[in-house]
Amino acid sequence: MSFGSTAERTIDMANIATFEKGTSQLLMGNEAIARGALEAGIGFAAAYPGTPSSEIIGSLAEVAKDAGIYVEWSINEKVALEAAAAAAFAGVRSIVAMKQNGLSVALDYLMGLALTGTRAGIVLVTCDDPGALSSTEEEDSRIVAKWACLPLLEPGTFQEEKDMTRWAYDLSEELKSVVLIRGVTRTSHARGDVEVGERVPPLRQAKFEPSNPLEFTSLPAPFKHLAANQKIDKAREIFESSPFNWYQGPDKPDLLIVTCGSGWFYSLEAVTALELEKSVGILKLGTTWPLPEKLVREHLSLAEEVLVVEEIDPFLEGNLKELVGEDPSAVGPIKFYGKRSGHIPVAGEINPDIVTAALARILDIEHRPVQPQYSQKALALTSQFTHGRMVGFCAGCPHRATFWSIKNAIKLDGRNGFVSGDIGCYSMAVGPAGYWQIKTMQSMGSGTGMACGFGKLAEFGFTQPVIAVCGDSTFYHATIPAIISGIYNRANFTLLVLDNSATAMTGFQPHPGTGRSAMGEPAPTVDIPTLCRALGVRVEETDPFDLTGTTDKLLDLMRDDGGVRVMVVKRECALVRARREKPAYKMRIDVERCLGESCGCSRLCSRVFQCPALMWDAEKGVAAIDSVLCAGCGVCADICPSGAIIRETA
Fold first, then answer.
1. Contact status, residue 149 vs residue 230, Cβ threshold 8 Å
2. Nearest one of 392, 390, 389, 467 to 426, comparing CA atoms
3. What residues contact residue 35 under an 8 Å CB cut-off, 6+ apart?
């Protein structure tokens, strides 16, 4: 075990494929995983972008040509896994990455692949998002490993993220199994020193040649299920001597911490802060399924009290208790603390303070990290300079204009219509950023799928207009089947495709509508209006910055009860456009015309429209524009009832 590297340290973030063996690089966790895959000799990489996993495939895409590998952004996570598995079946090592939500999309195929096995190594990296910092919900992906009989690795350091990924390919090929690597937001996006090894070139001769007709099928299922369990037994033996499991602390600790992943650093910091190095031990596990039973029992037998530190669910905690329950005499009586006992929160991220508080509570130690007087003074000082604000769309975002038109169209229609939504930047329309317009939001494509259901309720007295919204990337990912289902079943709803020409929420990755591939090469464009017209539905197109035109077209579509209708609302993401163009307009306030508090619904522009560039000058009692934030879209001039916002050609 080591915490740092004695190798020569360099900082060269330009190309992870060109790092020299033996140098130490400052890498993001996801970059370390990507480098580990290169050192393992991968030839194929696929994913659908999803924070916090996006940088893994993004890093590989940037160096694909230099490294001689193929990288793609697939249409969704299931297709990404299927494509990567095909490469592995043909003898090419592959990697596929996704966030926890994406694993649910890929799960149908993964369960079959777990029975099929593989030939060349294949690693599936799933990056969970404790606290749902960039997700609609937090999920713990680790249960899938136990469910599907797949080995699970959880890196706890930046060096491990690289080394564990490299090792996972040898493990995959020895077991002929997919190997899961699970990260979390903090390990994915933080940075640390990583000593890099030698990069191995990928296999250049792919060939698909099954040894028997059923080798790459999940049949016969009972036999292959038995084989999958036998692979887990073999993995357990291998894990007993894994270098990714270690213990730090006294020979016989008063309290043993068992942890994994992000919990390692948090536990180490907590023990150090309370000066408990001589009484508290830490067993850090990198191989969390299957558990290395001999190693775990050996350490559990040394302590009568055990604190389990992990994110998110009590996965490790439950497996430890299960192991102890099988043979209590092997370890003696143990009191477990963790999520079930309430010492570690059952939801959200953990941190060193949480672990420190848990240790102090268990060991009855008085610990006050900050004096109350200091906290009060700090709060008083910061409150003078910081102001709370709701999350919102960027200045110049086309989605703000779209939801303004949606709000007005629903009001003008007068039949209590509503919006069924899904996942993307526009998800913020569940709150004030989008004027509280989105009323349902669960998963990608679910807005349209739910509209299929709402749209068939007329026979039950349902009369409300239904508007589904999705983004362009989401359209390709998960919406097309729902549209077809709606057409086939004659559901009555209007779909708005909010096309901003990018997978904007996760880092502006390309998709089938952008005309370029993950590796920057020209690619065929799948045009959304053309595709929808080919399905036989009415299609309208509009620019969201044309508020009147968009509102009128939406009203007309809402009143056309002729099954599925589609309106493509197209305007490039403001952040993408700003990289190559200057603002179209220079905006200013005519203070003589501004009505201030008497305008509309009490400051319509700065309080209701909610563009971050629109401010309120309380001293002068008029609106103001932050010229640094303003994207010059000019939409605010159209919503000002007094004509006080002036747009001038830039």
1. no
2. 392
3. 16, 19, 25, 27, 59, 162, 194, 196
Helices (H), 443-523: 446-454, 472-474, 480-488
What distances in angstroms separate CA 495 from CA 379, 413, 544, one per listed residue?
A: 47, 16, 15
The answer to whether residues 482 and 449 touch, using CB atoms and an 8 Å cutoff, is yes
Compute the residue count for the chain: 650
SS3 percent helix, strand, coil of the chain, rounded to 5, is 40, 20, 40
Report the DSSP beta bridge partners of residue 9. 24
pLDDT of residue 319: 97
Sheet of 538-542, strand order: 438-441, 418-421, 466-471, 493-499, 564-570, 538-542
DSSP letter assigned to residue 522: B
| 467 bridge partner residues | 419, 494
Indicate if the pLDDT at residue 260 is higher than 90: yes
Task: Enter the tokens of residue 474.
Answer: 């989401």
Q: Are 105 and 76 in contact (CB under 8 A)?
A: yes
Q: What is the CA radius of gyration of the chain?
A: 28
Task: Give tens-digit pLDDT for 367-393.
Answer: 877 777 777 787 777 766 655 566 788
Q: Are 156 and 284 in contact (CB under 8 A)?
A: yes
- Name the token pair of 28: 């993001």
594-627 pLDDT per residue, tens: 998 888 777 888 888 989 999 999 889 999 999 9
Angle between helices 29-39 and 54-62 (to 10 degrees): 50
Domains of the chain: 9-206+213-239 (3.40.50.970), 246-363 (3.40.50.920), 398-578 (3.40.50.970), 585-649 (3.30.70.20)
Report d(CA 87, CA 43) in Å as an integer: 8
Tokens 């409300």 sit on residue: 464
Cα–Cα distance between 125 and 122 in angstroms, integer? 10
Q: Output the pTM of the full model.
A: 0.90
In the structure encoding, which two tokens stand for residue 527, read together? 């045009």
Distances (CA, A) of 557 to 150, 448, 489: 49, 16, 19
Q: Under 8 Å CB-to-CB from 379, ≥6 apart: which residues?
A: none
Candidates 92, 19, 91; CA nearest to 59 is: 19
Sheet holding 191-195, edge to edge: 9-10, 24-28, 191-195
Show Cβ contacts of residue 229 under 8 Å, excluding neighbours closer than 6 positions: 149
CB half-sphere exposure, 121, CA atoms < 13 A: 25
Diameter of the chain measured on Cα atoms: 85
Burial group, residue 225, by CB count within 10 angstroms (0-12, 13-18, 19+): middle
